[in-house]
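yo, LemA family protein is done. seq:
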Amino acid sequence: MGTMITLIVIAALVLFFVTIYNKLVTLRNRFKNAFAQIDVQLNRRYDLIPNLVETAKGYMKHEKETLEAVISARNSAVSANQTAAANPDDPDAIKHLNQAEGQLTGALGRLFALSEAYPDLKANQTMEQLMEELSTTENKIAFARQAYNDSVMEYNTYREQVPNNFIANPFGFKEAELFEIEDEQVREAVKVDFS
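structure:
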């Protein structure tokens, strides 16, 4: 009778362990899948940027430095995205992607601000279409990023709860990183000058 109770307790503990482990795997796969959706939209964005720069080049001959900064930031973001897409549960890869995306967003912001000084460029139908496509893609990235961050939050919360953390830590379920674009320009206060 004592052996039967011991077997039942062991079976219950194993079932408990397996349930927690399987839930961790499910949640990790969910946020990896959510990152795949971000990856699709980021690649679309990366594909649009060279066309945008090429269109602007004809009008902004004196803004070579800005155009080169956009391409350089784009290339860094592409590289960071490839690393993150290969391993979305690597917090360092996501942090690096956050930084690269922030730099790209800043460079694109400078390009768009400069384009305001070129009325012919603003009126160019190709430029207008590319900016519209980029804007639509940015919205899709924002939605995909929100879904990813929600999945990461659910995963991180579950893995940190007791007794789940006793299973998560030894089996390599690391904390996942949120995808938040780090754009210092967005964080700085707007300076208003009435002089």
